[in-house]
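Issue 218. Parser rejects a valid record. Input:
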Amino acid sequence: MTKKQIVIPVLILLFLLAGTALAIIFGSGYRFGFGANGPVVSGTGLLVATSSPDGAQVLINGHLTTATDNTINLSPGEYDVKIYKDGYFPWEKKIQIKQQVVSKADALLFPTAPKLESITNTGVTDPVLDPTGTKLAYDVASQSALKNGVYVLDMTARPILTFQSASTQIVNDTVNLFSMAQLKWSPDSKQILATVSDLNSSTTYLLDPTQLNQSPQDVTETIQTVNAAWDKLKADKEKAQLDSLVKPLRNVVEKDFKILEWSDDETKILYEASESATIPTIINPPLVGTDSTPQTRTIQKGKVYVYDIKEDRNYKILDSLPAKTSENAPLPLMFYPDSKHLVYVHDSKIDMMEYDGGNVTTVYAGPFVDGYVFPWPDATKLVILTNLGNSSLTPNLYTISLQ
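Output the parser choked on:
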């Protein structure tokens, strides 16, 4: 074998090894450049920019850099990231870029002119959301006796030709005065208690929310037994959620958290601090590529926070939780079904914000009744109770599109 026959394969092998090494270095975020003293290799981080809807502009420190659904190499440091699309509120965040770490800018953009659409036209009072967040029970009192009564709106029904067709009457006023009933869902969403009151007494009935109840079951004399069974269902679910936590975290949650709500994917807890305390480090060493929004691990009694279980990070949201406007109204601060955002109802307006408290956006500031705001389960819209500012009309349910 000649020397030439040996050298050529060796050179090819060295070329392939060098190319592979350069590809690995490039894929790890390193970039080649020229400094004052000659060629330099510098480490970078990756920013993955996405948006819904897509096709939005991405500005880095005020400079138009790319469009969403793209990956950008940036030198380590803090950047002002803005994602913008015509017809939508802008999304802005300070994001820390670290060497060889992938950071995310995931923007849900809300329309500046959301579509308002009627769900009901019969007049609605006291809507109550079930524990699964998929059904609304409500009273109708402004129609004939056959049409008055209790209805259930299934927000997951497919297909929905009209929103009105998704509502089912489960009891009418030919039985009793159900159009003025106080409604309460069971913890498993399989039953409804309807309490009908007059000047002298009250009667409580147990209803099946899936069909018309021709002869509702009177449980007035056994209501304590029903409530005890429901309390057990609720306690069992809460215990199962707590048991899913690692012991050090469970000890903190049980002692210092007044849980307001779990996110739908059960990876985050919205809570009011029941005591002032410091949350210990649960994940050590900390995860890389987590949310770069500053967190606080020292909590103060009465203030409202969100704890992210997967990333072991804690964010302050509010100094205090506003009071509910009525017994059946939902919490004025609640998780959106995507588990990444919160709905905040206050001062006659509806705000959306990220779970870390960032990007607060007022999506609706029109009239609505007594804080009755409910998220649609597929995270595309909100439901409100409103008469559109006309006091002579009985309020109805409307959707506010957030897409």
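Fixed in the parser; the record now loads. The chain has three helices and 31 strands.
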